[in-house]
Amino acid sequence: MFFASDNAGPVHPQIMNRIVADNAGFALPYGKDPVMDEVRASIRKTFEAPDAAVYLVATGTAANVLALGCYTQPWQVIFASEISHIEEDECNAPEFYSGGAKIKLIPTKDKMTPQALRDAVARRDPEDVHMAQRGPVSITQVTERGSVHSLDELRALTAVAQEFELPVHMDGARFANALVALGCSAAEMTWKLGVDVLSFGGTKNGCMGVEAVIFFDPSKAWEFELRRKRGAHLFSKHRYLSAQMAGYLQDDLWKTTAKLANENAAYLAAGLKARGAHFMTEPQANMIFVSFPRAVHQRLHDAGAQYALWDAPLEGPQDEDIAARLVCDWSISRTQIDAFLGYF
Amino acid sequence: MFFASDNAGPVHPQIMNRIVADNAGFALPYGKDPVMDEVRASIRKTFEAPDAAVYLVATGTAANVLALGCYTQPWQVIFASEISHIEEDECNAPEFYSGGAKIKLIPTKDKMTPQALRDAVARRDPEDVHMAQRGPVSITQVTERGSVHSLDELRALTAVAQEFELPVHMDGARFANALVALGCSAAEMTWKLGVDVLSFGGTKNGCMGVEAVIFFDPSKAWEFELRRKRGAHLFSKHRYLSAQMAGYLQDDLWKTTAKLANENAAYLAAGLKARGAHFMTEPQANMIFVSFPRAVHQRLHDAGAQYALWDAPLEGPQDEDIAARLVCDWSISRTQIDAFLGYF
Amino acid sequence: MFFASDNAGPVHPQIMNRIVADNAGFALPYGKDPVMDEVRASIRKTFEAPDAAVYLVATGTAANVLALGCYTQPWQVIFASEISHIEEDECNAPEFYSGGAKIKLIPTKDKMTPQALRDAVARRDPEDVHMAQRGPVSITQVTERGSVHSLDELRALTAVAQEFELPVHMDGARFANALVALGCSAAEMTWKLGVDVLSFGGTKNGCMGVEAVIFFDPSKAWEFELRRKRGAHLFSKHRYLSAQMAGYLQDDLWKTTAKLANENAAYLAAGLKARGAHFMTEPQANMIFVSFPRAVHQRLHDAGAQYALWDAPLEGPQDEDIAARLVCDWSISRTQIDAFLGYF
Amino acid sequence: MFFASDNAGPVHPQIMNRIVADNAGFALPYGKDPVMDEVRASIRKTFEAPDAAVYLVATGTAANVLALGCYTQPWQVIFASEISHIEEDECNAPEFYSGGAKIKLIPTKDKMTPQALRDAVARRDPEDVHMAQRGPVSITQVTERGSVHSLDELRALTAVAQEFELPVHMDGARFANALVALGCSAAEMTWKLGVDVLSFGGTKNGCMGVEAVIFFDPSKAWEFELRRKRGAHLFSKHRYLSAQMAGYLQDDLWKTTAKLANENAAYLAAGLKARGAHFMTEPQANMIFVSFPRAVHQRLHDAGAQYALWDAPLEGPQDEDIAARLVCDWSISRTQIDAFLGYF
Lengths: 344, 344, 344, 344
What we know:
The structure is a homotetramer.
Chain A: H1 13-21, H2 34-46, E1 53-57, H3 60-69, E2 76-81, H4 85-88, H5 93-97, E3 102-106, H6 114-123, E4 133-140, H7 151-163, E5 168-172, H8 175-182, E6 197-201, E7 211-215, H9 221-230, H10 239-249, H11 253-274, E8 278-279, E9 287-293, H12 294-302, E10 308-309, E11 321-327, H13 334-341
Parallel strand pairs in A: 2-3, 2-4, 4-5, 5-6
Antiparallel strand pairs in A: 1-7, 6-7, 8-9, 9-11, 10-11
Helix pairs in contact in A: 1-10, 2-10, 6-7, 8-11, 11-13
C-alpha cells in the first residue's frame, strides 16, 4: 500500500528489457549513441516538431533548472506558482542554475490564474534598474495539487507571457498524466500554445531515471549542452538514458503507464468518495489530496500504508480528520487499493 | 577495436543482474532504499572507515565538484594538476559548484610533484586580501596520463597539504585501476595518507553510471546532501544507483574488472613495444599514451579502430609518427587487441 | 521641493570639510589609513561594543548583501519582509552575493510581525533536503513604509530568530532616524536585542556615499574582508570613506541630521494632516506615505515638486486621490516645505 | 618617500574643488545627475566615439569585472596574462561576476605576446563540450610590470581576438599613463584597434575613487546597468562620481597628472640608473621594477621610505641585492625623489 509518491515503483519491464537489450558492445558516449538518434526522431514525431532540440538528463530537477537556465538572466525573476516544484522541492537549484535569479511566487491555490500571473508580471517595471527584471514563466502540468490545466487555461497563461514577450517553460514531470487526462496531442499541449521548452518526465511514469528536455526553439541547443556539462549532468554512458527513453516511447508506453496511473487514482478516489472522504480538489490525474478521520489514518499506518500527511488547509474536514496526499503510479494493483480502502 | 575510452563498454553482467533483481515492488526514494544501507556498510568495511559518510551520484564530474564544493570557499583556489580532469574536462563545473573559486594549475608533466605543489601553495599569502586564498588540494589517481602515484608519492603530496592545513580531495575515477596496480588497501591509498574525501569511480569500470563520494570526515555529510540536491543530483529512484554499486562491490568485482582492464592495457602495451612504438610514460594502469607511424594509424583508422589522437609532446617519435591515447576497459577482448596489433 | 528621496541632498558641510581636511599627503590604502582607526574606535564606543568588527563600504546595497552573505548558505532562505529593500530594490544582489539563496518573503503590511515570521520559519523542515533551509532573519529599521519598530517589537522578532538559532541582520539604512525616534541607545537597538550584524547607514543622512557594516560577533571579520574584496567593494583610497564616517560621527552629527530629517517630516506631516490628507501609516521617521487629491498633485507637479507616486493600497482616500511617498532629508528647508503645503 | 603605489596620494585640487562646487542642493540620483551628461559627452568626444555607452563605478576591480561580465558566459574562459590584475589582485572577483568562468593564463614575462595568446585560444576546441569555451581577451595597458604596449603590439593582440571573433577588454587602470607615453589618441589606443570595452582609470591618477567603463559597442548598455546594480555598485549620490570624473577630464587634467607621474618615474629611474641599479624592464610609464643593494634598502627602510619588495626574478642583480617595485604618482615631489636617491 504505497501511495507516498510515483517515484518509488519499479521500472516498467518494457523499459528494463530495452536497457538490457542495449547492453552489448561499445557505444559512443555523451549522447552520440545511435539509440539517441532514435529517441530524438521519436520525440520530434510525437510532438510534430521536426526542428526540436532534444536532450536527456537523469532527474526532474535537472531538467527544470537546466531548461530554465537557458531562458533566465541572473537579474531576472522566474514567474511560478507558489506551490511549484521549482520553489518548494528543489533546494534553490533554480537559483543556483540561473546564477542567482529570483522565483517570483504567484499566489496559487491550485492552478496559477492568468490574472494573478498578469498582476505579478505587470508590476515589474522593465525600466527600473533597482527591480529584478521580468523573466520566464514556468507552468506545472499536472500541478503539484493534482489538477490538470485545460488547454484553454494553459492558453490564457501563455497569452500573458506572449503579451510581455516572456519565454514559457513547462514542468512536465507528469506530462503524460496530464496529456491522457486531456486527451489532446503533445503538440497541442506545448508549442501550439507557446511553450518554448518542456521538461518531459519519464522517471515518475515507469522509467528508471530519465527526463527529456525539449526545446521547440532549437536556438538554445548548444547553450544547453554546455550548461548540462557544466552542471555535471552529461552522462558518459548516455546509451542507458537513451535506452530508457526509447523503451518509454515505444508503442506509446508512456501513455499506457500514465493511463494506468490515472485510472488507479480514479478508482481510489471513487472508493474514498464512497467512504465519505473530503477532497481538496477534484483529482484529475494520479494524485489525490484528501482528508479522512484520524482513526482511519491510525489503522492504515499500523498496517504499513505509506503516504504523505499534508498540512495545507482543506475545506470540509472535521477536527478529527487528517489530510493526506495519495499518489498512484502505474504499478500499484487494484488489490492494494482495495486493501487500502478496506481500512475505512 | 574500441580504445577511445573506458566509458563506452557495456555494463558488467553482475551489475546488470543486480539492477534487474532489485527492480521489484516499491522502494523508498532519495537514498533511503535498503540497498543503500548495504552499500554504505560495504564501503565502510572496504575502506576500514566505520564513520565514513557515503553518497552516490551518477557522473564523475558530479562526484568531483560536489566533493570539492564542500571544501572550497568562493574566494579560494583549488590546487590541481594542469592536466587534471577538473581543469580540462569539466567545462567550469568546479568553478560553478564552488561559487566561483579558481583552479590554480600546478605545472605537471604527468604526476604532480610535491615541490611544484608546495611552490604554488606557499606563494599564496593568507593575509593578503587581494589574492585568492589557499583552498583544497585535488589529486588524481590514476593520473590523466595513465600513471599511478605510489603511496610514497601520494604521501609527499598530502604532506604539503597537511603542512598548510589544506583539505585533500582525490579524484578516483579510476581508483580501482590504481589500487590493483599498487596492490595496497583502499585505506592505505586514502585516509591513512590524509585524503579527506574521495570520488570513487564506478562508471569507467563496469557500472552504468554511478560514483561514490566518500567523506572520511563525516562532518560534511549534511552539507553534501544539500549540495547534491541543489545541484539536481539527488535521484528519486536511488535504488538503481545503489543496485549498481552493490553489484560492483559484491565479491570485489570492482577489483576484478580493474585488473582485467589493466591486464588488457599491459598486453596491448607489450605488443606495441614489441612493434617499436614509443611511450610517453610507462603505462601503469589502463591507459597508454603512445606514438607510432602515421601509416599504421591510417590502416587502423580504415579498419574502424577508435582511439583519441593526442597533441601532447612525446619524446622519441619521428616526424612521421602520430600520438594517441589508447584506453582499455575490462570488456575488451584479447582478440580485439590482437587484431589491433595486427595492423602494425 | 525635493521629496523624492533622502539620497539626493548635499553632503553635510561637516563631512565635506573633513574630506577636504584629510586630503593631504599619502595615506595607506585599503582601510589601513589612520582615520579608519578613529572610526573603528568611535563606532565601538557608540555601540558599547569593544570587540565589534567595523568595515566601510560605499553603498547601502553593498552593506546589506555583504553582511548577509556572511550568514547565508546558498541552500538557505533569508527571511525578510515582502516590502524590504533587499527584496524590492536590489535587483537580485542578495541572491548574487549569497550564491543563489532565496529571500523568503514575510507577508507584511508595514512592520514584520513575529507571528508571520515564526510561521515562515517554522514551516521550513530542517531535515528535509528538498526544501531550502532556514537562514538569517533580516529586519529593516526604519521600515520601507516609514515606521519604526519599538524595542519591544524588535525583541519579539529577534526572539523568533533565537528560538530557531538563526542569525539576525538589521538593514539600518535609516538607522539614525529610527534611533532618534525611539530615543534609545545604539546598543539597545542592536546587539542587546540579538542583532548580529548591522548595516549602519550614512549615505541617506548627510554623507557622500558610505555605510558601515558592524559585526557584533567579530568571528566573521576576515570572511567579510574577503567577500568585500571579491565583490569589488574594497576601496584603495579608503581614507575618503573613513573621512566621511569620521565627520559623520563627530559630535554626534549623525543624530543631529537624523533629528532634522525627522522633524522636517513631522512638520510636513502636520501640515498635510491639517489639510485633510490621509496617511497610510503614522509617520515616525522621515518618510510619509500619504494620499491627497489629484488636483493638488497636478499643481505640485506643475510647480516642479518631486516625489514618488505610490501604488500601494491606502485606506481612506477617495477615488480622485493619488498616493505618494514623501521623504525629507536633513537639508530640506522649512521654506520648501511651506511652499509645498501652499499648493494644497 | 612613498613609492608603494599610486593609490595613496591625495586627490588633485582641481578634482576636489569640483566635488565641493557640485555639493549644493538636490541632484537626481543613480546617474541621472546633469554632471553625468557632461561627463558622457566629454568622454565620447575624447574617444571620438559618439555612440559609446559610458558608466562610472568607484573601484578598478568593479570596472574590470562588470565590463568583463558583459562579455563572458559562465562556461567560457577569459584569456589574460598570468600577471594581470584580474588574476592576481581581485580575489576571484572576475570568477564571481562572470558566474564562474575561468581565467586562462597566458604565460607572460611582461607583455602578453600574440603567439602565446594565439596558442591558448587555438587550443580550445569550440565544439568540445567538455572544455571551457573561448571567451574574451583582456589586455592590461600599462602592464602590471610597468611596460606599455605599442600600438603595433596591441594590434597584434587584437588581431588574434578578431581572428577567433572574441571580444576585447582593456584594463586601463593606468590608461592615461600609457596614452601619454605613446603620445597617441584615446581612439587609436582603443576602438580603432578593436577594443570593445575599456576600464578607464581615474583613481590611481588623481581622483578619489572613480573609474569609467566605456562600451564602444553600446548594445551592452542596459545589461551593464543591471549588472552594476546587482553588483551593488550603483551609487545613489552618483553626482560625486560624476564630479570627480568631470574634474579629471576638464582641461585634460588626466593627461597632465599622467605626464607628471611618468616624468617623476623617469627622473627616479635615471637617478637609480646613474647609481648602478638594475632594471627588470625599461620603465615606460610610472612604475619601476628595480634591484639594488640590501644595505641601501636597509637605509631607506630606516628612513621611512615605502615601497613593495618584489620576489619576481630579475636579471643582473647580485646576491646582496633586493628587488623592489617603485611607483610614482603625480603628487610626489622631486624633493622626495632626491631624498630617496640620496640614500644610495
